[in-house]
């Protein structure tokens, strides 16, 4: 007798930003007929946002749901995260944010004082970004139907020149805007009860002004951008390499990382290159402008520790090669998923 085919179900890894999520997304994608507007960027590109060409301008549109646990964490909270996440997805498409929406899903019994704290934090982050909150929706679920809360934010912005995550060319330099691993490791330390042993905080912040500086300094020499959120730097680099059909060589010694992040990674057995960042971007730049963009970023408080960490190459298309501190080489694999659930 043939065994009954096992019913396939969604697992936590399907939402974790890695290989399994990409497979699920590919499956979702097949269900929709019209997935872009005009010649714009749409669902199929699986970029940080979509682009609608409108009256000679590029309207950029993106959406993101936030479920982070705990909702207050070192360096931020779910409200700040919900604004920064959407603003940064617009920014790495080359857009400055105009307006956001906010969809709240709250559990019955949620303290109003906590909600107020979260909304005030959202407002501060919107002010930092220079964006308005112009529409929203609120739903309440019954006791036990939801742990914590869910915030969905969609955002629109305008881009003079759209930058995708697929535009790397061999020879381009890869620049990261600051230390890697802060958000994931700060959250993990907090969850493991290690917060008294570390002062590490999440990097959660809107970085649209920082990105605007890079765009002003780099112009058309900026070939690709992406924010290394779920799956961390490793997932981000792999996606950029795969979409552009180039290889990427990254020098471990050049990747900015706080000692605390490195130490916590070793202690907890988690690779800091695979955890989420919420205030960083990876930027691909034609080599002749790389130094100018680096200097422009370093002149902004959010970009003080920006660094060139590697380059794109015609060899090993779709692969990321990590040159280790002792000079060895290995593939930096695309993580199966972010090792930390409910990270953003
Ligand atoms: Mg993104």
Question: Strands, helices and their partners?
Answer:
Elements: H1 19-29, E1 50-54, E2 57-66, E3 72-73, E4 76-77, H2 78-91, E5 95-107, H3 112-129, E6 132-141, E7 150-159, E8 173-176, H4 182-191, H5 208-218, E9 222-226, H6 232-244, E10 247-251, H7 259-268, E11 282-285, H8 287-298, E12 307-313, E13 320-323, E14 329-331
Parallel strand pairs: 5-6, 10-13
Antiparallel strand pairs: 1-2, 2-7, 3-4, 5-7, 8-11, 8-12, 9-11, 10-12, 13-14
Magnesium ion is lined by residues 48, 89, 227, 229.
Describe the model.
There is one protein chain. The chain has 344 residues and is of the alpha+beta class. It has two domains: 148 residues, 2-Layer Sandwich (60s Ribosomal Protein L30, Chain: A), CATH 3.30.1330; 159 residues, Phosphoribosyl-aminoimidazole Synthetase, Chain A, domain 2 (Alpha-Beta Complex). Helix content is 29%, strand content 24%. It contains eight helices and 14 strands. The strands form three sheets. Strands 9-11-8-12-10-13-14 form a seven-stranded mixed sheet. A five-stranded mixed sheet has the order 1-2-7-5-6, with helices on one face. The protein has a two-stranded antiparallel ribbon with strand order 3-4. Helix 2 runs parallel beside helix 5. The longest helix has 18 residues. The radius of gyration is 20 Å and the shape is globular.
How would you briefly describe this protein structure?
The chain has eight helices and 14 strands.
